[in-house]
Amino acid sequence: MNLRKSLLASAVITATLGLTACGGSSSNDSDETPTTPTVTNSAPTAISLSTSAVTEDVVGAVVGTLSATDDDATGMVFTLADDEQYFEINDSNELTLKSALALNAEQVETLDVTVTATDAGELSFTQTLSVSVTDIEAQDGVNVYEFASTVDTSNSAVSYTGQVARHALSAQIKAYIGLLDVDYIESNGLTGDAVKAQLMAYWSDYEAVKDNSFLFVDGSTTLQQSFAEISSSGKSLTGKVAGNDATKMEEDWLTEGTFEGWSDFGTQAKTPEGLIFHYFDLLAANVDAIASGTQSEDVNGNDITAAYITTSGLDLNQLIQKHTLGALMFSQGTDDYLDEGLEEDNTDAAAAGTNYSTLEHQYDEGFGYFGAARHYLEFSDDAIADGSANADVDGDGKIDLASEYNWGNSVNAAKRDNGATVATDFSSAAMTAFIAGRKIINDAAPSALTDEQKTQLLAQRDIAVANWENAIAATVVHYINDTLADIDTVQGTEASAEDFANLAKHFSEMKGFALNFQFNPFSPFYSDDNAGKFAELHTLLGEAPQLTDAYKAQLVEARDLMQQVYGFDAQNVENW
Known about the structure:
By secondary structure, the chain is α+β, with helices and mostly antiparallel strands. It has helices at 5-9, 161-178, 182-187, 192-204, 206-209, 227-230, 272-291, 316-337, 349-352, 358-370, 381-386, 408-418, 426-444, 451-490, 497-514, 533-541, 549-566, 570-575, and strands at 45-49, 53-55, 62-69, 77-80, 87-89, 94-97, 110-118, 124-134. The model is unreliable at 1-30 (pLDDT under 50).
């Protein structure tokens, strides 16, 4: 127990020798009251940090040890404001980043943190400290996803061009569908059959489209000019969608009832790919209607000019892309390469005639489906979100789609971090874990991983996958909020065709992303505590937006469910 000086003063002996008036002899019968020295407690002052800089790209990094000037520093307690976003204090009085956060020098140079020091006498002092973020140079295996081969150190051991080719095919489909408005359909004499044939070629006939130029990016800026220059052959989407590649899959997606979240498949099989084909069918029917001169109208009587917007309020383009990100990219990444794929051999590089082991390649392919460029951590969330991080990092004058371009969920992670009221760091947390896991494999190659290394690898895998899913979940919340606002707008008397198109877009992004969770075997929706909640979520979301207060209440309930399952901060859930 620590006694403050003011308490100790009360224990001073009160019976003292009396002093004579003249200061001479003492007497026991003196009438004078002896005096007791008074010692008062002073509040702490001058809070300081042993180190006031933190290195970027380190999740949960320690900044420094806190201290304060006081007459007795024993028992000093340091606290932060309840609304502190970035920092926390551990049991050793060290100021650290929160466990799921890293800082990015390209995003922020300094951060202020307000610290209160309270002494054992409960007197306190508050001071704002400044923490600088130290930029570190790009370094392979540290903040860049790059590793030298143990077979030939002059070459890279990293390879996932097949995953990039599939990202590019998905982006091509989205860009093509985005062209299909009234003017484009009529000026090109398109029919539903012609459109569906083109979509099916992109989906399942790589040989037919591999030499096509890109629609989704200006090919003059990229190193590759065609799909074949990304990956030479055999990279169709159909072969990797959940159910068509049964290897290492934990669910039988071809059995009716396994795939949840959607009920109307038209004439198509009730499978993940069947839903894609159903969307193609709906799109083709709308193209035929436009080609025949039939003009669809939205709920407010405005002409619908895009074939991918349905009268029920679906944006088929968004549904196709977001469902592909789940049923193919997220499924393959988590339920294949980063699950059973991590049981593969790490000793066989030389025998296989490659620069990497089977295990190294499996891990790279899982990472490839996340979609991040190798220098992802060298750019701010702003740059990743707005596309300016798709940059010529190596200075060869071209953007390499296989290593310098950000795809799919890696971009959404940055967007959600950007939009968080209370700081999140899904982007850096996922990327640093992906790099750390790959380094464990690379450091062991060409030997098998020890039990300890395998445990460490799986821990990094879990962090990467959890933050990948968190970014998707946060995106669903974001589009629930957008859809709620859009319903109010479309219900208004002055609602435009653009307002209805926004409602369709945001609903379809919400719904398409929400279908993704079932494809990740590590999803919190698979926990016993959340049994039945995935189906409940999709019952609440429905299969088309409804312009009613009851449906708005359902969306709020769905948002609350997402907060419960993922433990998101209430302010973020409300404001994303």
